[in-house]
Write the C-alpha cells for this entry.
Amino acid sequence: MKIHLTIHHELEETEVHIHAKEYNEQIERLMQQLQASQTTMLDGYFQQEIHLLKITDIYSIYAEDAKVFLQTNEQELSLNENYMN
C-alpha cells in the first residue's frame, strides 16, 4: 500500500480518497478505521436545505415532538429535513 499526503491550506476540512485495484478486506478495515474516527460535523436542515455544522458551533441540541433540533448562534436547524420550513 502506498500513502500520499498532500497539504492544501485552502481546504476547510480533510478529504480522504482511496484508489484501489479491487475492494478487499484490507480496504474494508481501512474504511472502518476512518469512519470510526471522531465526528466533527453534523448535517442540519433549514428550509429544505442541508447545512453542514461544526460540532463546536452547536450550543444546544434538544428534542420536541419526536424531532431533534440543533441551535447555533445564527439559526435553529432540524435533523429531519421535512420538518423545518
